[in-house]
Amino acid sequence: xxxNPAFGAGLQPFMGIPSFMRLPVSRExxxxxxxxxxxxxxxxxxxxxGTRFGPRKIRETSLMIWGHNSTLNVTPLKKLxxxxxxxxxxxxxxxxxxxxxxxxxxxEVIDTGTKLITxxxxxxxxxxxLRAHAKKHGPVSLVHIDAHIDTWEAEFExxxxxxxxxxxxxxxxxxxxxDEYMQIGIRGPLSGANDYANAKELGARTVTIHEVMExxxxxxxxxxxxxxxxxxxxxxxxxxxxxxxxxxxGTPEVGGLTSYQMLQLVRGLHGLDLIGFDLVEVSxxxxxxxxxxxxxxxxxxxxxxxxxxxxxx
Length: 313
Ligand code: MN
Ligand code: MN
Fold this sequence. Notes:
Arginase, Chain A; single chain; globular; 8 strands; 8-stranded parallel sheet; alpha/beta; binds manganese (II) ion; 10 helices
């Protein structure tokens, strides 16, 4: 924990400088276990924007998180040396340049052995993040929590990259291990009757919200643990949560997961070989009372807690 009082250490949550969980802002990675990085980019969105303000707001709401995770019985910042790495220097008018910058900065972090927690930003950032992680670890097992399949073939005036396509290209580029990709919480109107079939053909195991609600989260987690054999990357789109719990997002879909189920899903990944994580699609301008950002910062804390448990072994 940072103990510099100028930073806000020892102060109330509404005081001081809002880095993630009041961690030191640093690009020095010596002996650092985990770096939290922001990607304030929303030019990959197809509907309403605003996720460029996500990282800042998630950092702000993270100041309300007290350090001990009572469910997992761990105090992550006592087990792990964590820094707030700051933001990727994005270019709002160029998704290609931004993607290159994300892969580069993510690579710089993970090449040192430091694990990365990335706060978005829209879901287009997952592709450059997966490129960086696959470059280091080889193809990854992928847990993707979302209302949307994001494997669409949706070209916007010749540009293939958007928040609706990252996993199509990740699969095509061989960044994901065969049969080790689950997308969980999927729902909503589709662009066509074949969307799920197309996702399956590409290599996704689509778990609809209907299946989650019928079987329960525990049963879905059982399949996750059976399936994932490689290094596991986790990507969480906040719109997997019902708009009642997460209204501050670009493409809300009704009939989703509760806040508790979101936490339960992430918590249940305990025991997997977790190598990377991102949390995307928080759009503060559409939020109410910060509830979406509060959920997001707590999900990130839950993941951080899993890394800390692993460190205990
Ligand atoms: Mn989504
Ligand atoms: Mn998504």
